[in-house]
Write a structure and sequence with these properties.
It is found in: Cell membrane. By secondary structure, the protein is of the alpha+beta class. It has one domain: SH3 type barrels. It is built from 2 helices and 5 strands. It has a 5-stranded antiparallel sheet with strand order 4-3-2-1-5. 9% of the residues are buried. The model has no long low-confidence stretch (mean pLDDT 88).
């Protein structure tokens, strides 16, 4: 509440000195939209990571097929999952891009 009052009073004082705040407000709006669009993939990756962890889809040490990569899961984070393939390559996979995953380590139900 205090910050809102401070912001409005500052804008009123600056306008009394003849400063046009229209371009500043418009620029702030454009920057806000750009940040929102830029953060979209980050939010998607984090939400996907949360669901992966909660649903226990796979874990460290599991043998998986994911995004054209087959290997052993080395880490599962909120944003990134790392998989080491048979040739030793460490793959960093964004959780939001993992739409289909095969887990060879989970037992049959």
């Amino acid at each position: 509440m205090n910050s809102t009052i401070w912001l409005i009073s500052s804008a009123m004082i600056l306008s009394e000195f003849g400063l046009n705040l229209g371009p500043v407000v418009a620029s702030a709006g454009v920057i806000g939209v750009a940040l929102g669009l830029g953060a979209q993939t980050l939010v998607r990756d984090i939400l996907a990571g949360i669901f992966m962890l909660v649903e226990d889809q796979f874990g460290v040490g599991d043998n998986v097929d994911v995004l054209d990569v087959t290997g052993i899961v080395e880490s599962v984070g909120l944003r990134i999952t790392t998989v080491r393939s048979a040739d030793g390559t460490l793959w960093y996979l964004r959780n939001g891009e993992i739409l289909k995953l095969g887990n060879k380590s989970q037992p049959n139900h």
